[in-house]
Amino acid sequence: MSSEQNATLAQRIEAKRRAKEIEAENKKDAIPESGIKPCSDIQPEITCISEALDRGDNPIAIARLLLIAMESCRVSGKELSALISKSEGWISKTIALLKAPADIQQQLEDKLITQSDYAKSLERRPRAIEGVGRIDYQRMPTVIIGIEAARSLAFILQILADNHATTPIKVDANTTKKDLSNILNLRSAEIRGLLK
Fold first, then answer.
1. Is residue 136 part of a domain?
2. How do the pLDDT tens digits run along the chain, 196 residues long?
3. If you count Cβ atoms within 10 Å of the first and of the last residue's Cβ in the chain, which end, N or C, has fewer?
4. What is the rounded CA–CA span in Å between residue 122 and residue 60?
């Protein structure tokens, strides 16, 4: 979806939202405070979302469309999931991408990483697996390298990022293990994409 189409859609949705707010103020007693009343014409937003999904638009653009539809038409994730034939969990996870760091959002927009790549990078916590009467913990597979090897790899990524005019990577002798891990996990796919 082009930025012009996004802007046009956003303007249309904003105009609808403003009209609904004015209508709500005029008919305050008619809308129960606890209930969610969807707007009368959500079909254009649903069509736009469906077309974006069919085209395979990047997940950030789709997340923005989902959020706009939910906010402007005041529909819940559950209601929206029924309208676009996606699970409520899928909608929540897709909208949560908008909370990702800016560089990750850019990688998702440029299709350097997928939504599942990003989700896997977040799965560092042990997952509980129910066994017979007990809970075992399973971790994601990891590769163990020394801190100096990690620092060297991060320096290489820093040089490649500088040479390819992408978001800079800041590494020095005081970079923490956590920062090194984030650089290696989140930025290596982006740099690999630039080298192709």
1. no
2. 666 766 677 777 787 777 777 776 655 544 334 334 445 578 888 888 888 888 888 899 898 888 888 887 788 888 888 888 889 989 988 888 888 888 888 888 888 888 888 888 776 544 544 444 444 445 556 667 888 888 888 888 888 888 888 778 888 888 888 778 777 777 777 777 777 6
3. C
4. 17
- Residue 22: both structure tokens together: 């004015």
Kindly report the pTM of this predicted structure. Answer: 0.45
Amino acid identity, position 143: V
Query: Rounded to whole angstroms, how far apart are CA atoms 185 and 118?
Result: 9
Residue 10, classified by CB atoms within 10 Å of its CB into exposed (0-12), middle (13-18) or buried (19+), is middle
Which of 70, 72, 85 minimizes the C-alpha distance to 24? 72
Token representation of residue 55: 């085209």
Q: Are residues 89 and 25 in the same domain?
A: yes
The closest alpha carbon to 90, from 78, 101, 102, belongs to: 78
Tell me which residue range forms the domain holding 163: 147-195
Name the domain count of the chain: 2
Task: Please report how the helices 43-55 and 77-84 are oriented relative to each other, as an axis angle in degrees rounded to 10.
Answer: 60
